Fold this sequence. Notes:
The chain is mostly helical. It has one helix at 19-35; strands at residues 5-6, 11-12. It contains one helix and two strands; from the N terminus they run ββα.
Amino acid sequence: IRPCGDIYVNRKVEPDRSLDDEIKRLNIQKLQRELADPDADVPEAKQVIIGVEDASDPDAE
């Protein structure tokens, strides 16, 4: 008896679909995840300037 659902991805599997088709689909998804740019969802870094006091400045506190 073949289950009608995929417990790992919570996706219904069509009963007429062969196991080879399902394996092919999962392999394609895996390759797409591996080839996806990991920095695509990372926002651009913001530049932060931190002030540094000069120790030789007599007015500096």
